[in-house]
Specification:
alpha/beta; seven-stranded mixed β-sheet; four-stranded mixed β-sheet; 7 helices; 26% strand
Length: 244
C-alpha cells in the first residue's frame, strides 16, 4: 500500500514517477539518483533524442520514464510488464509525464521464447524478483502468487511495435530465452541492449550476442571510459559492432 511520488534527477527533467518499496527497498530513497546510479548513467549515455526504447521487465518504470525524458517528443518508449499491480503504478506515472517526454506505451505481457500462455510467479519478498515460473533467483523469498500471463517473442513484437534503438531487459533468469533465436531483432533491427545477466546464463548470453556481431561492455562502469569485455556480466551492455 506504500506508493510515493518521486522525481527523477534533473538530467531527466525531474519528471515525476510513482514508486513503491514493494518493488524494491531502493525506492525508499527520497532522492531517485541513489536508487540505481548505473542504470540512470547508462540511460544518459545511450538514449538520444528521437530514440525508440523498449523496457522489458519494466517494474515501476525507472528506465521507462528516464528514457522518455531523454528521447523526447520525437521518440517513443514501450514498457513490457506482466505484473498487474505494477501496471497500475506505471499507468499512474505515465499520466503524470510532461508533454516534452516521449509517449509511453504500456504492454501487459511477458517476453519469452514463444507466443502463448505461461505461469508467472509473484515473489514474496519483492516484486523486483517476479519471474516466469521456470526461473527466479534466491532473493524471491518464496512465491506469493502464481497466475497465467500472455507471452510474445521479440521478433513477433518487432512486427507490431516501433523498431527499438535500445532494449533494456531484466527478466530474472529468463534472458537466454528472450534473446535466443531472435534473428530479426538481433540481425536486422540491431538495437543496443542493456541486460541483467545471471552467472548461470552468462556463457550462453555471451555466445548469442557475440555470434550476432555485438560487442559487450560492463554496464557498472561509464561507457565513455569502458573497454569491451569477453563475457557477459551482471549488468551487460551489448552494442552492435558497427555502432561502437
Amino acid at each position: 500500500s506504500w506508493v510515493y511520488r518521486r522525481r527523477l534527477p534533473p538530467a531527466f527533467n525531474s519528471v515525476p514517477i510513482y514508486v513503491t518499496p514493494a518493488a524494491g527497498l531502493k525506492f525508499l530513497f527520497k532522492s531517485m539518483d541513489k536508487a540505481d546510479p548505473p542504470l540512470l548513467r547508462n540511460v544518459r549515455e545511450l538514449v538520444q533524442p528521437g530514440n525508440v526504447v523498449w523496457d522489458i521487465g519494466a517494474n515501476v518504470g525507472m528506465l521507462t520514464f528516464a528514457a522518455a525524458a531523454k528521447s523526447g517528443v520525437g521518440g517513443a518508449v514501450v514498457a513490457f510488464e506482466p505484473d498487474s499491480w505494477l501496471l497500475q503504478i506505471l499507468r499512474r506515472s505515465r499520466s503524470a509525464q510532461p508533454a516534452a517526454s516521449a509517449p509511453v506505451t504500456i504492454v501487459p505481457v511477458a517476453v519469452a521464447s514463444g507466443v502463448g500462455l505461461r505461469q508467472f510467479n509473484l515473489a514474496a519478498r519483492s516484486r523486483a524478483s517476479n519471474s516466469l515460473a521456470e526461473y527466479g533467483h534466491s532473493q524471491t523469498g518464496g512465491v506469493m502468487e502464481e497466475y497465467t500471463v500472455p507471452t510474445f517473442t521479440l521478433d513477433w513484437l518487432l512486427e507490431n511495435q516501433p523498431k527499438p534503438d535500445l532494449i533494456k531487459c531484466d527478466v530474472e533468469g529468463a534472458e537466454v530465452e528472450v534473446f535466443r533465436g531472435q534473428i530479426k531483432m538481433l540481425n536486422e533491427a540491431r538495437p543496443v541492449i542493456m541486460c541483467e545477466v545471471g552467472d548461470e546464463q552468462s556463457d550462453e548470453i555471451t555466445a548469442i550476442f557475440m555470434e550476432s556481431g555485438y560487442k559487450l561492455f560492463d554496464g557498472e562502469k561509464p561507457l565513455s571510459t569502458a573497454s569491451g569485455v569477453s563475457r557477459a556480466s551482471w549488468n551487460t551492455i551489448a552494442i552492435p559492432t558497427e555502432k561502437c
